[in-house]
Amino acid sequence: MAVIKQDETLSPLYLSDFKPKPKLVTHETQVSRPRFSVIDAHNHLSLDGFGGWDTRPVSELLDLLDQADVRVFVDLDGGWGEDILQTHLDHFKAAAPERFRIFGGVDWTKWAELGNRFPDWAAERLRAQAARGAQGLKIWKMLGLSVRDQNNQLVAVDDPRLDVIWATAGELKLPITIHIADPVAFFDPVDNTNERWEELHDHADWQFPSPPFPPFLTVVNGLAAVVARHPTTTFVGAHVGCYAEDLKWVGNVLDRCPNFYVDISERIGELGRQPYSARRFFIQYADRILFGSDRPVEEHIYPTYYRFLETDDEYFNYGNEEVPRQGRWRIYGLYLPDDVLEKVYYQNAARVMLGIS
């Protein structure tokens, strides 16, 4: 019998060149439209170019949303001042009032200038944004990672000085979509053990190693503390509560805080690689999960989400790239029951974002 010896002259294979083609034979389900109509509770329509909608007619965006049966689109980019908010209201909301919800935001850069007056000022600006037409508040991940006060001290997520902002949102019945941490691996050293090595090398500014940044658990536990401290304010934890890698942690916060919800935006890569746990999570917390994509509106985006939620397809690419951009793995569908799908797709967001019981 012939013995094939390994060719010792083979060159090393660089990870960037490694693009294996799976030989696994699986069925593929095309899902162009969802089982039920959809509210995209987490997305962006920044007029500075995110998604490319700055130079395109709103009618083109609506055509794509119609194709995907997205009935309401929540735009989280109306923050950082009333001028930005007004631009979004004029450009999107005015064109299709029932199709768009525009959220306001906080201009953290004013803290150094205003000092101790900043929290009350920010709360008043939120009132002004609501008066103009803002229908929610978006908190970005700068809080807890880069926002500093007048003394140049890092502001913790659960800093009690910010309580007036959270309380004002509750008084105005404005939901808060809050994003205060990225995937856990972003907080780890970018070495040969980091599962997002490629992504972080492509985006060096996405790294938050501790030190100098706070540890990941400090940040997310700060979020949990804020939610618990303000039971009359509705919080939506973006990206599966900012901790999709640990659904038990997220579930514990949901159990303790009836005012806490989560969206699934940009985390089907995480959820889809733990399909058994994720399916149990969706069924157990079916009333607390909102659909969201956080992706530019393109034809392939929504069908991938629908396939993940509705089918039992196995081991498929969750992105449009040859190598998935968030990690070298593939995902599995959750084949959720219809009653769960209807809540996740539409009913939960209708209650939380639109105020429809």
Helix content: 25-40%
Series of secondary-structure elements, N-terminal to C-terminal? EHEHEHHEHEHHEHHEHHEHH
Structural class, from helix and strand content?
A: alpha/beta
> Which strand-content bin applies to the residues?
5-15%
**CATH-defined superfamily:** Metal-dependent hydrolases
Strand elements, count:
8
How many helices?
A: 13
| Total domain modules | 1
- Rg, rounded, reads 21 Å
**Inertia-based shape:** globular
- Overall average pLDDT: 93
Q: Any idea of the CATH class? A: Alpha Beta
Summarize the structure.
By secondary structure, the chain is an alpha/beta fold.
Give your account of this protein's structure.
This protein has helices spanning 58-67, 82-93, 111-114, 118-132, 163-172, 197-202, 216-229, 238-241, 247-256, 268-271, 275-284, 301-310, 338-352, and strands spanning 38-43, 70-75, 100-102, 137-139, 176-178, 235-237, 260-263, 289-290. It is α/β, with parallel strands linked by helices and 357 residues long. The strands form two sheets. Strands 4-5-6-7-8 form a five-stranded parallel beta sheet. The chain is globular and about 65 Å long. The model has no long low-confidence stretch (mean pLDDT 93).
